[in-house]
C-alpha cells in the first residue's frame, strides 16, 4: 500500500525494464498492481493481506476527507471574516505558466519554488503541470491562456513545435532548475510597478499673483530654499493644505527672460501647466520624480 492506493504486486521492473523477483533496500523499482497512482512522497508499506491493506487505505482516505473538510471550513470562516479586506486589496498581477518536466518530482519542485517568489503584487500561476513531453494539447492550452511553456529536461514533439510556431506560443527549455527560477524571477520583477522616488530641489513663496494675456495666471515668487527648475514637478501648499499634488513648472522667468533655474534668494515669475488657481502666500515645493525599477 502507498497512500490511499493498494493492491497486489504483479511485477517488479528495474531501470532497464527487467523483471525482478524481489527488491531490497536502496533498489529503485517500478511496481505494477496498485489500484491507483499514489502521490509523490507517499510512504510505501507491505501488509499481510489485501483485506488489511483495504482497511488501512480506507482509514487513510477518511482521515484525508475529514482534514479537508475542517481546513475548508476554516478557510471559509476566514474568508468571511476578511471579506472587506479582500475586497479592498489591490489586484495581483499573474504570470500564467505551463510546466512540463521529466519526472513529477522535478515539476513539483519547480512549482513550489515559483510559489515562493509570489508577493501581494505579483505571482506565477501554474495553469498545467505534469511529467512528459510537450504535446499539441499543451500548446493549444498555452495559446488560450496566453502562457509560455516551460520544459524541464523534456522537449516538444515536432507537431507541437510546428503548432507553437504557427500560434506564436513561446517554449523555453531548461536543464538547470536555478536558471529556470532566475528567468521567471526576472520576468515577474518586470511586472512590479516602479517606485516613484522624489528628489527635493527647493522651495519658493508666492509674493503676488496676476493675469497675463495669452499666458494665464502667473505667480511672482521668491526662492526661499535650494533651487527651482523649469520642467520640474511642483507641489503647491496653501495654509498647510496641498492644493496641487503633482504639477509641472511650465514657465520660469527672471525679469523678461526665460531661464532654466533660479536659486535661493532670487525672485522670478512662474506659471504652471493646467493650474490657474495660484494665490499670494502659496508655498511651492519643487522636486524631481524618478521611476526606480523593483526586483523580487
Describe the overall structure.
With 296 residues, the chain is of the alpha+beta class. The chain folds into three domains: 7-75, no CATH class; 90-191, Rossmann fold (3-Layer(aba) Sandwich), CATH 3.40.50; 195-292, Beta Barrel (Elongation Factor Tu (Ef-tu), domain 3). Helix content is 29%, strand content 38%. It contains six helices and 14 strands. It has helices at 50-81, 83-88, 104-117, 136-145, 158-167, 177-191, and strands at residues 7-13, 30-34, 93-101, 122-131, 149-152, 171-174, 195-212, 216-229, 233-238, 241-254, 257-258, 261-263, 267-272, 283-292. The strands form three sheets. The chain has a six-stranded antiparallel β-barrel with strand order 7-8-13-10-9-14. Strand 9 and strand 10 (241-254) form a beta hairpin. The radius of gyration is 33 Å and the shape is elongated.
